[in-house]
Amino acid sequence: MLFIQLQILYSDIGDSELRNINDHKNELKTGLSSVISYQQSCLVGFEQDNNMKETMQKGIFGASEHTSNALTILTKLSDILSEFDIQLNITISHRLNFVEKNEYLSWFLAKDHHILARIDNSNLKQNVVVAKDGSDQFKTIGVALVATLKNSNIRHVIL
Predict the structure, then answer these.
(1) Number of structural domains the chain divides into
(2) Same-domain status, 19 and 69
(3) In this structure, are 15 and 73 located in the same domain?
(4) Whole-number Å distance between alpha carbons of 89 and 78
(5) Backbone angles phi, psi at 145, to 5 degrees
(6) Global pTM?
(7) Do 135 and 71 have their domain in common?
């Protein structure tokens, strides 16, 4: 049941039409709370068999800790970011599903794998430069991305 709830949560968030992390915050909190509840319910089912209950507790301990930590981080995230005067207004354009080490992200197209493999990074020249202090073309990556997407349909290198 735990795994199914996590899969449903991931699927709901990943397939959603919502485009902002704030839009997903309550869904995520509810889903993570459900996972914690299922973990506790699972242990209650083994009340009569102490050996099995202990085995199950050991088995779900790591998952329980991670789920609890994720819920705490999500709950406190807005407060933490506001302390640093950071707005949580990140749009979601791709689901960043990291794959095993030394492989490309799952959303990379196959043709991009070949392009990236052939690039000689020593000859790479940037199209746009971002500097937070304002000493270059743009102060933020977000503004640079918007500008490059509006003005061109070619690939850009942003440093």
Answers:
(1) 2
(2) yes
(3) yes
(4) 10
(5) -65, -45
(6) 0.42
(7) no
